[in-house]
């Protein structure tokens, strides 16, 4: 597989919850500081990345995803503060338990797809990435710029399957929560 300059590989897929309500607060920062935004991924909270290779996602996989996601109720989430990983600035969803449960359910069905390939251990930290691969000075500036746009609330009613085609990410399917 070939990687693009952002490190994504054609055929990679992920499961995300789009958070369009975040766009006014994060768009400018994400466009400049998050490679995923430059590759077409909207503001989101990741449920699972990477998921199955696109070539393995057939009608049966989509039906299983619909059933797995559909067991979970829609919910409201609030974003009122920032958090950090090394080199990463994110918005923290409250509550985060519904996102954790979605991730656990998908991984329970597809145990060969641990979050982030198992790179960060078993801990699941739901988050909306604003900037990544940046030094603390840049993250401090972005965090200060985000504060006036907080808090905001979003309604979570679906999980989207997104696939990278080698140039950008696109939505392949959407699965409703109940």
Q: What can you see in these coordinates?
A:
By secondary structure, the protein is an alpha+beta fold. It has helices at residues 23-33, 35-38, 59-70, 97-109, 136-146, and strands spanning 13-18, 44-48, 75-85, 88-94, 128-132, 152-156, 158-164, 169-176. Strand 3 and strand 4 (88-94) form a beta hairpin. The longest helix has 13 residues, at 97-109. The termini are far apart.
Weakly predicted, low-confidence segments = none
Q: Could you give the distance between the termini?
A: 36 Å
What structural class do the secondary elements suggest?
Answer: alpha+beta
Mean pLDDT: 94
Largest sheet: 4 strands, antiparallel
Q: What percent of the residues sit in helical stretches (DSSP H or I)?
A: 25-40%
**Number of helices, counting only DSSP H or I runs of 4 residues or more:** 5
Q: Would you count the extended β strands for me?
A: 8
- SSE pattern, N- to C-terminal: EHHEHEEHEHEEE
Q: Give Rg in angstroms.
A: 16 Å
β-strand percent reads 25-35%
| Strand arrangement, major sheet | 2-1-7-8
Please tell me what the overall shape is. globular
Topology diagram in text:
Layout: E1 13-18, H1 23-33, H2 35-38, E2 44-48, H3 59-70, E3 75-85, E4 88-94, H4 97-109, E5 128-132, H5 136-146, E6 152-156, E7 158-164, E8 169-176
Antiparallel strand pairs: 1-2, 1-7, 3-4, 3-6, 4-5, 7-8
Helix pairs in contact: 3-4
Properties at a glance:
single chain; four-stranded antiparallel β-sheet
Question: What is this structure, in a nutshell?
Answer:
Helices cover 29% and strands 30% of the residues. With 178 residues, the protein is an alpha+beta fold. The longest helix has 13 residues, at 97-109.
